[in-house]
C-alpha cells in the first residue's frame, strides 16, 4: 500500500523496547530500596505482595488509568502507610521506581530504524505509559512527547490522537500512528481518522472484525524500509 505520510506518532513501550523486563526490574529495585529505607514495608510487601497491591490499585481506580504515575504513587503510599513507615519516604521511593522505569533495553532493530524514520518525517511520541525520553536519551529523535497523563485521557480515546495531530499541524489523514497494541494503537488511531501501522513482533493474529491495519511489520525496520521505498509518495 502506498499513501502519503507527513508525520508519525509512535508508541513507546513494547514498540521501541519490551516492557516486561522493565517491570520485573522495577519490582526488584523497589523491594531492595524498601529493604534499605523501610524494612517493615519490605517485610509486609515483598515483590509478589507489592505487585498484588499495585494490580488492586489499578483495578480500584479506573479514573486514574490515564495516569500511571499517580497510580504508582497511590500504591507506594498505601504500602508505606499500612506498614507504619514515614510518609516522607513516598517521593524518594517514587524516584527509585522512576529511575528503574527509564532503564530500557531497545529491541535490536529499534534505534537504527527510529533514526531513519525521524530523518524522513517528524515523529511524536504518543504513549499511555510514563517513560521519559530525555532520561532514556532519545528525545532528539522526537518533535515532542505526549503522554496520557499530560493529555488527561489515554489511547484509544480519539482526543489524544487529535491533540498530537494538532501539535504536529498535520491533518489526521496524513499522520501514521505506529504501535504494538492492536486496539489501543491501531484501531484507536484509525477510528480517530489517522493511518494505522501495527508493529506485530510476536505474530499475533489480527482479530478486529471490520478494520485492517494500513501497514503491518514485525520490526520497526520494516516501516523504515517502507518509508524509504515510498519516499515519492510522502510529497504527494
Automatic annotation (TrEMBL):
Molecular functions (GO terms): hydrolase activity
PANTHER family membership: HALOACID DEHALOGENASE, TYPE II (AFU_ORTHOLOGUE AFUA_2G07750)-RELATED (PTHR43316:SF3), HYDROLASE, HALOACID DELAHOGENASE-RELATED (PTHR43316)
UniProt-listed Enzyme Commission number(s): 3.1.3.-
Pfam families named in the record: Hydrolase (PF00702)
Record-given protein name: HAD family hydrolase
Keywords: Hydrolase
Keyword Endoplasmic reticulum assigned: no
Amino acid at each position: 500500500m502506498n499513501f502519503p505520510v507527513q508525520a508519525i506518532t509512535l508508541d513507546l513501550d513494547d514498540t521501541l523496547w519490551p516492557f516486561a523486563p522493565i517491570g520485573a526490574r522495577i519490582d526488584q529495585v523497589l523491594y531492595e530500596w524498601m529493604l534499605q529505607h523501610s524494612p517493615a514495608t519490605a517485610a509486609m510487601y515483598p515483590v509478589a505482595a507489592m505487585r498484588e497491591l499495585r494490580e488492586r490499585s489499578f483495578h480500584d481506580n479506573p479514573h486514574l488509568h490515564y495516569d500511571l504515575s499517580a497510580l504508582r504513587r497511590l500504591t507506594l503510599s498505601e504500602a508505606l502507610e499500612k506498614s507504619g513507615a514515614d510518609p516522607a519516604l513516598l517521593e524518594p521511593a517514587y524516584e527509585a521506581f522512576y529511575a528503574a522505569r527509564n532503564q530500557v533495553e531497545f529491541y535490536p532493530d529499534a534505534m537504527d530504524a527510529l533514526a531513519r524514520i525521524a530523518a524522513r518525517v517528524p515523529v511524536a511520541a504518543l504513549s499511555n505509559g510514563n517513560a521519559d525520553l530525555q532520561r532514556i536519551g532519545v528525545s532528539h529523535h522526537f518533535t515532542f512527547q505526549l503522554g496520557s497523563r499530560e493529555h488527561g485521557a489515554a489511547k484509544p480515546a480519539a482526543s489524544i490522537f487529535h491533540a498530537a495531530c494538532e501539535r504536529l499541524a498535520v491533518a489526521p489523514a496524513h499522520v501514521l500512528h505506529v504501535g504494538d497494541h492492536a486496539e489501543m494503537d491501531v484501531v484507536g488511531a484509525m477510528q480517530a481518522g489517522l493511518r494505522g501501522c501495527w508493529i506485530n513482533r510476536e505474530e499475533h493474529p489480527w482479530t478486529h472484525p471490520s478494520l485492517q491495519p494500513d501497514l503491518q511489520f514485525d520490526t520497526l525496520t520494516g516501516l523504515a524500509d517502507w518509508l524509504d521505498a515510498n519516499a515519492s509518495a510522502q510529497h504527494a
